[in-house]
Write a structure and sequence with these properties.
420 residues; Growth Hormone, Chain: A
């Protein structure tokens, strides 16, 4: 790696606040991944129902519909303070599951209830951390900073996949949750230690303590309208919704089913599959952090199409090592696609509306629980391969339609979304 490439990748760490945010985000992402795999395996083995597995995964995203409200709150009180409160809440909920498991009182119903509560908060985490990143990072470093920040999710998914299922298998869910609670607590403390951004862009004309209801509704509407109005922003949001509806279900909530029923493997095999996709995503994130001058909007189109092409192949594979290699390639394409969408939104959004814009971005994640629930039913009716092919093919065609509809914003070299 050249000296200039290393400097580009490490440049965000010259910002003191980022040196606290990055490890806090890393530990939170690690806890998310361990928790997803542990609970997914617990529900599948306790109930034997793929439908309940998809319901569990869907509950994690119940809060996507209120994500713009969290973004608005973050715009008013500060994104750093909101993230700290959210991560203390994760700690309390994880500690509840830990206590129930260690005392022998844990049951699938209790897990569903606690995950439903967590799901009201957790979907907003990624959007709020993105808005905080835009607050502390100079504009010229934003692409590199978003790419490096993305490695917190990718590396955590690798480590979480390999260690989380191992902890569960070796020590049980109670001790696995002891580790999860410690990760959440440490991440919350790091966020508290991080200094507030030097300038907070509150909603114009209102202080953080003056929250009349009409003002709240007006601010929320302003953020939602703004999120769809900028050059390329509508396309980025549509791609994010499409990916969550038709692509992520097969590398997210359904992965325990794929590991158990399609490849007939155990927790270790589930960990390998999840880690493979995350490894590819990490490769994509690091590559984009090192490469400058990328036409982001064109990359969004190309990477998303490649992602669906790899999913078409993945659903036909029945050999675990080949499936892992396919997931690595799909992970690379997925990372390039989702980073491109985030960069378009953050570049275009007005500073005082970033939280609400990223809240809208998180809201479109609601496509994931819809896709999961539909996939759970379709697999029972037409089988796994037919369902996967239907999802990937429809996603491929829909992405082509998005590229055609927004071609003026996504393809010309002079388009704002393609600015270097």
């Amino acid at each position: 790696m050249s000296r200039s490439a290393r400097a580009s990748a490490l440049a965000p760490f010259s910002i003191r606040s980022y040196r606290f945010q990055w490890p806090s985000d890393l530990l939170t992402s690690w806890a998310f991944e361990v928790e997803n795999l542990v609970l997914g395996w617990y529900i599948l083995t306790e109930t034997g129902s793929v439908l309940l597995l998809t319901v569990l995964a869907s509950l994690n995203y119940a809060g996507t519909l209120v994500a713009p409200v969290f973004g608005m709150i973050g715009d008013r009180i500060g994104h750093r303070d909101l993230l700290a409160m959210m991560r203390f809440a994760y700690t309390a909920l994880a500690s509840t599951i830990m206590t129930l498991a260690l005392t022998g009182h844990l049951a699938p119903l209790y897990v569903m209830i606690i995950v439903a509560v967590m799901g009201l908060i957790r979907p907003s985490d990624l959007g709020i951390r993105g808005a905080l990143l835009a607050d502390i990072m100079p504009p010229e470093r934003l692409v590199g900073a978003i790419s490096v920040s993305r490695t917190t999710q990718d590396s955590a998914r690798i480590a979480g996949a390999l260690t989380g299922t191992g902890l569960f298998a070796a020590f049980g869910i109670g001790f696995a949750y002891m580790a999860i609670a410690c990760l959440y607590l440490t991440s919350a403390i790091l966020m508290v230690c991080m200094g507030r951004p030097a300038k907070h862009y509150g909603a114009a004309g209102h202080s953080g303590d003056d929250w009349p209801a009409p003002s709240l509704l007006r601010d929320l509407k302003e953020g939602i309208v703004h999120a769809w109005s900028g050059p390329g922003m509508g396309a980025a949001l549509c791609v994010a919704f499409l990916a969550n509806l038709t692509a992520f279900p097969f590398t997210n909530g359904l992965l325990p089913y794929v590991a158990n029923e399609i490849f007939h493997t155990d927790q270790a095999g589930l960990g390998y599959l999840s880690a493979s996709f995350a490894l590819g995503s990490l490769i994509g994130s690091i590559t984009l952090s090192l490469v400058g001058g990328v036409r982001i909007a064109r990359l969004l189109v190309g990477a998303t199409l490649a992602w669906y092409a790899m999913l078409l192949v993945f659903v036909e594979i029945r050999t675990l090592p080949v499936a892992m290699a396919c997931l690595v390639l799909a992970g690379i394409a997925q990372s390039l696609s989702m980073i491109s969408a985030a960069v378009i939104l953050m570049r275009t959004a007005s500073a005082h509306l970033r939280g609400r814009v990223m809240g809208v971005r998180m809201m479109v994640i609601y496509g994931l629980p819809l896709g999961l629930l539909a996939a759970g039913s379709l697999i029972g009716l037409i089988g796994y391969t037919a369902t996967g092919t239907l999802y990937a093919a429809s996603g491929l065609l829909s992405m082509m339609a998005i590229a055609l509809l927004w071609r003026a914003d996504l393809w010309p070299l002079h388009a704002p979304a393609n600015a270097r």
